[in-house]
Amino acid sequence: FGTAFSMVIAEEIAERNDSCGENLTWQIVDTVKLEIVGTGDMTDYNETTDQPRPWESHKYKITQVAISDGVTTIGQRAFEGHDKLYKIELPNSIVVIDDYAFHYCESLRNIVIPADTKVIGRAAFNSCFELDTVSLPDGLQMICDGAFRWCPDLEEIYIPQSVEYIGENVFEYCGDNFTIICSEGSYADKYAQEYGYNTRYE
């Protein structure tokens, strides 16, 4: 009884909290759309912070996320397990998409990574089973371990020449004929050769 009661209280407190970062607020629109506005970094929702996502009770209803210009990071595990989420609007101000940010977003089909993004964190899009289109910007620098692991519908991806680090198992269990599109001699080209992926030069 005590544990269940504590969880209910925690959810009620989270519901009254419209903050998701020092200068960020959130709201639910039309029961299915989560909007985040403000400036700066989003809160991380991990074991270290031990902080519940304030929109947790809406998790299984949210189909769209819209984040306003000025937000600079997507926090760790911010949208993990949002299995109805299929549409994400990210502003160019996003610099880091942090670890597990969209892990297990099973309905997500495409994602455009913003122009100013430098880092895609560990397992950020891991197990997005329907994801088939990813657009990476010129200027991206790091794609961390397992970022697109278990995305079986993803058949190809363009990796810009600016990328200087790709972690382990980033594209493991992607499409059967998964292809990396890149510049010949680039870091991505060497990575593809090391891991045995098909390549197509731009």
Can you describe this structure?
It is a single chain. With 202 residues, the protein is α/β, with parallel strands linked by helices. 12% of the residues lie in helices and 24% in strands. The protein has two helices and 15 strands. The chain has helices spanning 2-16, 187-195, and strands at 19-21, 24-29, 33-38, 64-67, 73-74, 87-89, 96-97, 110-112, 119-120, 133-135, 142-143, 156-158, 165-166, 179-182, 198-201. The strands form four sheets. A five-stranded mixed sheet has the order 1-2-3-4-6, with no helix packed on it. The radius of gyration is 18 Å and the shape is globular. Residues 5-16 have low confidence and may be disordered.
Which stretches are poorly predicted, pLDDT < 50 over at least 5 residues?
A: 5-16
- Number of strand segments: 15
* Mean pLDDT, all residues: 92
Helical amount among residues, as a percent range? 10-25%
- Helical stretch tally: 2
Order of helices and strands: HEEEEEEEEEEEEEEHE
Give the helix/strand class.
Answer: alpha/beta
Strand order of the largest sheet: 1-2-3-4-6
- Envelope shape: globular
Distance between the termini: 60 Å
Beta-strand fraction estimate? 15-25%
Biggest sheet overview: 5 strands, mixed
CA-atom Rg in angstroms:
18 Å
List the SSEs and their pairings.
Elements: H1 2-16, E1 19-21, E2 24-29, E3 33-38, E4 64-67, E5 73-74, E6 87-89, E7 96-97, E8 110-112, E9 119-120, E10 133-135, E11 142-143, E12 156-158, E13 165-166, E14 179-182, H2 187-195, E15 198-201
Parallel strand pairs: 3-4, 4-6, 5-7, 7-9, 8-10, 9-11, 11-13, 12-14, 14-15
Antiparallel strand pairs: 1-2, 2-3
